[in-house]
Every structure is written in structure tokens, then in C-alpha cells.
């Protein structure tokens, strides 16, 4: 009876405090092997004050989400490589909770394109008791991912018009998320075009040389026929008499 009452009170509290915590988690993967994490951690100003966040040593800001007022701070970190960022995503917070149990980021370089692959498994929010009912009503978690190039595949989410991947997150159950993108290697494309152009130019030069040489061939010599030789002799001029012939009989 007592446990049933606690559950009932917890359910009412969950409905009253619906959306009291908001976490926006933005993951960005860069082409050069680096990455960054950004976002917002905010608490409803209706149930929390700036003093509740002052111990963290971060600048407390005011936000408005879906018409509700929140207080919190920005999340922003830069990483030199994918491995470091993946380890950070799996690291537990001071409260002992983490959004991810496993994260991997892979870059596969090809001749014509480079592929980027993101895989992760999310964790439900850590709660020692379930008297507050569904954590989905208390905590609003939004996870987005930005990959280089064009997104080619997404599981456990959707791609917005701006190319940003928005994953579905459940505060009460684990889930697997996956995304892939591709970047065209423009240098390889340019190289292929240059090779094709060079081959075509070479073929054109060979064709021109062949045509020019064919035009320079001498006309064939036609041998004289017997009739041509007789005509030549008939039309020849008679030879003048010699001096000996002119003095004969004198």
C-alpha cells in the first residue's frame, strides 16, 4: 500500500515537472580528423535557481525552449582526433551517468571518395529509483550529429534539410544509432578529367598528322605508250645536211 502511494505521488510529480531538464548534445565530425562537442545543459527555472548551478563554475545563462524558461550553461569542447572525442562521449559525469555506452567514428579513404561512419549505443538516464515514473517526461534529450559531405545512411534518426542528423533518444531505454556520409575527392576527379583530355588531344594530333602526310604524296608517274613514242618521232624536226653532203658532185 505504501509503495503504491509512493508510485502514485511520483507519477503526479513527473507530470508536474515534465520537461524540467533539457540537454542539447551536438556532435560535429570534421574532415581533418578532429571533432567538437557543443550544446546546452539547462534546468527549468520554475523548479531550479542559479544557485543550483553555481557550484559548477560555469557561466549560467537563461534560455527559452518551447515557450518555457530555463537556466543552464553552454557545452563546448574541441578534440584533436576522433578517438579522444569518442572516449569523452563515453565518460561518466559527476553524477555517474553517461549518454553513451559505446561510440566509434571511422574514416575510410578511397580514390574517388572518403566515407565517414558514426556508430553509438545510447544509455537511459541513470536513476536509482523509479518512483518518479517515466524519465522521458522529466528529461528532454536532443542529440544531433554533423558529418562531412553528404549523408548517405541513417539509422535511429533522420536528416534535416540542412544536412544535420537528429537522433531519437529515449531516457528510459538504450538504443543504437548509426550514420554514414561521403565526400567526393575532387582532386581525383580533376586528375581523371586531365588524363582523358590528354588522351583525346593525343588522338587528335595523330589524326591531323596522318591527314597532312596523305596530302603531300607525289602524283604517280604514267609510262609512255608505243603510240606516244611514234608521235614524238613524227613531230621531231629533221636534222640539217652536213658540209660533206653539200660539196658532193662539184
**Percentage of residues in helical conformation:** 25-40%
As residue ranges, the low-confidence spans are 1-17, 127-133
Biggest sheet character: 7 strands, mixed
The proportion of strand residues reads: 25-35%
**What's the structural domain tally?**
2
Encode the helix/strand succession as letters.
HEEHEEHEEEEEEEHHH
The gyration radius over C-alpha positions equals 45 Å
Mean pLDDT: 78
Structure class = alpha+beta
- Shape by Cα distribution: rod-shaped
* Number of DSSP strand runs: 11
Instruction: Measure the end-to-end span.
Output: 178 Å
Number of helices: 6
The largest beta-sheet arranges its strands as 3-4-2-1-7-10-9
Description:
By secondary structure, the protein is of the alpha+beta class. The protein has two domains: 2-185, no CATH class; 188-229. It is built from six helices and eleven strands. The protein has helices at 2-16, 51-54, 82-90, 186-215, 226-234, 243-246, and strands at residues 21-29, 35-44, 61-65, 68-79, 100-109, 113-122, 139-146, 150-155, 157-159, 165-167, 175-184. A hairpin with a 5-residue loop joins strand 9 and strand 10. The longest helix has 30 residues, at 186-215. It starts with a helix and ends with a helix. The relative contact order is 0.12. Residues 1-17 and 127-133 have low confidence and may be disordered.
